[in-house]
Amino acid sequence: MNTQLLNLLVLLVFAPISCFLLLVPVSGKVFLSIDCGSSSLKPRTDNNSIVWVGDGPYIQTGEVHKVNIPAQIPDFDSNALNTLRAFPTRKKNCYSIDLDSKTVNSSRFLVRANFYYGNYDNKSSPPTFNLQFNGNNWEQITTTNDSVLYTEVVFSLNNTNNINVCLAQTHLDNIPFISALEVRSLNSNIYGYVPSEFPLLFQLRTAFGTNKTVRYPEDSFDRIWSSLGPLSNPSTLRRITSDAPSININSTIDKPPEAVLRTALLLFNSSEDIAYSDTTNLTGPWFFNAYFSEPIKLNSTQKRSFNLVVNANKDDSLFFPENPLIPPYGGALEVHIANVSTFNSFFSLAFFRTNDSTLPSLINALEAYTVGAKLAQGTNSNDVKALGLLQKSFIQLQNWNGDPCLPSPYTWDWVACSDDTDSPRITALNLNDFGLIGTLPDFSAMDALKTINLRNNSLTEDIPEFLGTFPELTVLDLADNNFLGTVPSSISNNVNLKFTATGNPNLSCTPTSICNTDPASRIPPPSTNTNTEPKIPSPADKGKSSKTLAQPIIILLIMFSGFLL
Ligand SMILES: *[C@@H]1O[C@H](CO)[C@@H](O)[C@H](O)[C@H]1NC(C)=O
Ligand SMILES: *[C@@H]1O[C@H](CO)[C@@H](O)[C@H](O)[C@H]1NC(C)=O
Ligand SMILES: *[C@@H]1O[C@H](CO)[C@@H](O)[C@H](O)[C@H]1NC(C)=O
Ligand SMILES: *[C@@H]1O[C@H](CO)[C@@H](O)[C@H](O)[C@H]1NC(C)=O
Ligand SMILES: *[C@@H]1O[C@H](CO)[C@@H](O)[C@H](O)[C@H]1NC(C)=O
Ligand SMILES: *[C@@H]1O[C@H](CO)[C@@H](O)[C@H](O)[C@H]1NC(C)=O
Ligand SMILES: *[C@@H]1O[C@H](CO)[C@@H](O)[C@H](O)[C@H]1NC(C)=O
Ligand SMILES: *[C@@H]1O[C@H](CO)[C@@H](O)[C@H](O)[C@H]1NC(C)=O
Ligand SMILES: *[C@@H]1O[C@H](CO)[C@@H](O)[C@H](O)[C@H]1NC(C)=O
Ligand SMILES: *[C@@H]1O[C@H](CO)[C@@H](O)[C@H](O)[C@H]1NC(C)=O
Ligand SMILES: *[C@@H]1O[C@H](CO)[C@@H](O)[C@H](O)[C@H]1NC(C)=O
Ligand SMILES: *[C@@H]1O[C@H](CO)[C@@H](O)[C@H](O)[C@H]1NC(C)=O
User: Fold this and answer.
1) Which of 36, 119, 453, 469 has its CA 20 to 30 A from that of 111?
2) pTM score, two decimals?
């Protein structure tokens, strides 16, 4: 093919972000915008008719901070960014959103997390940390001093009506924070060509022809279509607005808003075609959705027709099977481009007019995503229910949200889990020194427990019989509590159990050995039974996930001389 690189334009796309959770049911759909760090009980409607709520109902941990923001942050609701919630303690802290089960069936969900550091802590040290959703890794977030970052994931729920978003510390002294959190239901068909076991991690969504960001209410799902803003080189690039009275998007799967199809971008020199390229080093394949609409009512001698070529700089670059592409007037063409990877330090999507085309190629909008790892099922549901009973009984445990075990190694601080990364079991309860007051609920469903440590609380009444019946239990520490009565036979007869109940003044401990047994000292030492201690991730373990969508995306528009022959 006879192409030549004429020119490169570098355009910085500013990735905006904010942090809030707000639940606004719209005809059975979820449209929740949470203003993180805002304690406001009164919903607030912004300039885009988006209703924001405070985050109190969705999280109980973290600290609230005010943020100084510039007078205007283009495309963002500055009120949503002028507070944040930061998390100086715990491995992870989670927002938890319970949905009406009626809404859960309906759809996939788009979740967007927004971050604006704004030097809230006066340290001029924007942190890096990890973001997680429903027990899955999402993204590593690297914040900056003064730009808004956001990142988006689209996924389906399976066997749960809860959406949770967790912030996990990955670097020493880097305190995670969030400014706004948004949850939107999508129609079940939207992005439905990706199997529902996999999340879509969005990398890019640009409306090339518009001069301002398009989102709700133009996009009823509130996807954010970034604009290139004022064209950096108006003598090279040109926007064109459709003269069609209306644009029917019904033929598309993903229902882009009409506003992004109404305008397109093309090159000023009408003998040159447009291409999109990027120097991002793609570590995994990207998937694109490209959208086109013919802006001019063509007469019988006019034709706009072009071929998509991926990585035209590659000798064996393949023509796209759906070629040639002919945008419909008053309608929309959606094209899916799979498996795009970097070649020679960049990748490109070039649109070369066909030899019978009288008009140059153009583009209206482009989305790009990567497909994440298969969604985890989450910690064993019996274990989760039993943890729920403990949380109901003890107020100290009530502000732990999100998946107790996943993603590994970000467990709740007081449990340990088996290694299974899809549906792990709880193997240890480390509740010593928690100030628990009262009686233990029956958590016998947690039958993979190996260690139960309840030392130094104020637990009372008889020691429950079920504590001795866990098949794999090897350590049971009830010392320094206020248990009454006698040691149940399930415990005293359990020869595998290292059991301690000293320091319970009203517990009958005769002979004294009954309250302090160690199989190691009684029987031949058993094969070392690994007592699963909670794994505290070392900084080196953390922060391995992919680059954040929120970073500015560099777009190179490459002009190819002539067309493809
Ligand atoms: C909303 O729009 C008005 C008028 O354009 C503007 O003055 C105001 O700053 C905007 N509010 C926010 C929070 O961006
Ligand atoms: C949700 O879907 C399941 C299976 O498809 C069905 O059994 C259930 O009735 C649905 N629930 C609602 C509230 O529509
Ligand atoms: C940051 O500095 C400002 C002005 O010096 C002060 O008002 C504010 O309290 C400080 N904030 C923190 C978190 O230290
Ligand atoms: C943030 O600002 C401080 C002070 O201006 C600077 O030292 C630091 O390098 C900046 N950090 C980033 C990530 O830009
Ligand atoms: C939903 O969960 C069930 C088990 O609870 C599993 O068998 C099934 O594969 C899951 N479906 C999807 C789409 O993830
Ligand atoms: C943005 O585009 C609209 C419609 O095409 C136009 O009316 C408006 O003047 C443009 N604004 C800027 C700042 O270019
Ligand atoms: C698009 O589809 C919707 C729902 O099926 C229908 O109401 C609408 O009339 C259609 N629009 C056009 C222009 O055909
Ligand atoms: C791109 O990423 C791969 C894998 O991470 C790495 O091996 C390669 O050196 C990177 N290339 C550039 C140009 O950074
Ligand atoms: C079609 O439109 C073009 C551009 O406006 C014009 O030059 C040409 O004469 C028209 N042809 C016919 C057959 O109307
Ligand atoms: C992408 O590439 C992988 C590996 O080559 C292949 O298994 C997969 O089917 C491709 N996906 C699509 C949608 O073409
Ligand atoms: C256009 O190209 C095709 C094959 O690429 C060729 O068969 C056809 O003759 C060409 N048409 C013109 C008008 O050159
Ligand atoms: C337009 O592009 C063609 C092909 O690259 C070139 O020959 C011509 O000089 C360009 N025209 C202008 C005005 O730049």
Assistant:
1) 119
2) 0.86
